[in-house]
Amino acid sequence: MDKIVVEGGRRLEGKVAISGAKNAALPILASSLLTDGPCRYTNVPDLRDIHSIIELLQSLGVHVERDGQTVVVNASSLSSSEALYEIVRKMRASILVLGPLLARMQHARVSLPGGCAIGARPINLHLKGLALLGAEIDLEHGYVEARAARLKGAEIYFDTVSVTGTENLLMAAVLAEGVTILRNAAREPEVVALADVLRRMGAKIEGAGTANITVTGVDRLHPVEADIIPDRIEAGTFMVAAALTAGDVTLTDCEPDHLGAVTDKLAQAGAGIEQAPGSIRVLGDRPLAGLDIRTQTYPGFPTDMQAQFMVLMTMAAGQSIITETIFENRFIHVSELKRLGADIVVSGETAVIRGRASLSGAPVMATDLRASASLVLAGLVAEGVTEINRVYHLDRGYERIEAKLQQLGASIWREKI
Ligand code: EPZ
Predict the structure, then answer these.
(1) pTM, 2 dp
(2) In what order do the strands lie in the sheet with 136-140?
C-alpha cells in the first residue's frame, strides 16, 4: 500500500499533458462486446479502473492486448455472459457490460455493484430501461440476470439524468429491433464519445449530446478504431492546482470545449485563462475570490470537480457556498480538509466555506477518487508536509499524478507504507 507525501508552498509552472478520459474509455471498451472482431483504441489512460474493465472483459473470454496507451479488444472469442462479483466489486462501472452483453448474447448475469462512499447509487433506471426494451429481469443472490431473445425498441424516460444509465441503454438499443428514444438522457461528452464510436461501428444514433437520443436498431456492428477523448476532470484538477498555487500552467492535449463551467468558475474566482485549440493556460496571479457553486449534470458544473473547488475556496476571500445536487454523500472530504485547518460547515447538501484560512500539513485519509485529488491539492498549499493515505483511490482515476505535478515544480512523492 502506498501513501503520497506533499510538501506545500511551491508555485506550479510549466506544461502538463492531459491523459485520455477514464469515463469515456470505460463504456467504449465495454462497447467492444457488441462486435466480433478487433477494436483498436488509442489514448487509453493507464489507470486501475482500466485494468479492472480489461480484467472483466478477459473473464468473459474476450481477447485484450495492451501496448502502452493502445488497447486492442477482440470479442470474437466472447464465451461467457456472467460478470462475477469478485471483479465487479472492484469497480461500479463494471455495470457497463450489462447492456452490450444482453444485446450480443441475449443473456447477461452481472453482479450488482454494491454501495459507494459518495452515495447509494442504485441502478434502477438501467433496469427499468432494459425492461422497457423487453428484457426479463431477475435480481437474485446479489446478481441481476437479464434475458431477451431480441430487444425491441421503446421510448425510455429517465426520471433522473444518469450517465452510465444512458450509456448502458444506448449500447443495448443499437442492436434492438426498431427505434428507441432515450428522453432526459445524459449529455456528458463521454456519452457523445461513446455514441461516436457506436456510429462508427455501424449504429444509427441521432441526438447524442442532447436530452433526447434516437437509436434505430441494426442487425450487426463491425469493429472500429478510435481515439479516447481527453479527461476533462483531470484537466479541471490541474487548472485548480495552477490557480491555487498562484502558478502559470499550460495544459496540452485537452478539450477546452468540455470545460465551460469549470473555466467560467475559475475566471470568476480570479484566475486568468487563455484558451487555444487543444490547450488551456491558467494564470493564478490574482487573489482568489469566493464563489457559489451548484453541481449539475452536463453542461452544468460537474460534481466530479466539487471537492477540488472546495479546496480552492478555502484559500479565497470571503465566504463560499457549495451545493451538491448529484450525490447525497459527497462531502466526506470535508472532515479531512478540516484536519488541515479548513473552516467548513456542512448542512445537508450545502457546505459553507470561510476562506483565507491558511492550511497546515497533516496525515489525512483518502475516501474516494475525487476526494483524494482534493487532498493532494490541499497539500500543495498547506504549510509543511501532508501525507495522504489510501491512494489506491487516486490511482483509479489519475495517471501518474505525482510525476505530472513534479514536472510542474511540486514537491510530492510516493512512499510504500
Ligand atoms: C458517472 O457515474 C461517472 N462515472 C461519475 O464519475 C460521475 O460522478 C457521475 O456520472 C455524475 O456525473 C462514470 O462515468 C464511470 P449517474 P454514474 O448514474 O453514471 C442516481 C468519477 O469520479 N441514479 O449519472 O454512476 C444516482 O444515484 C465518478 O470519475 C439513480 O437513482 O452516475 C445519482 O444520484 C464518480 N438510479 C444520480 O442518479 C440509477 O439507475 C446520477 O448518477 C442511476 C443513477
Answers:
(1) 0.98
(2) 82-83, 107-111, 143-147, 136-140
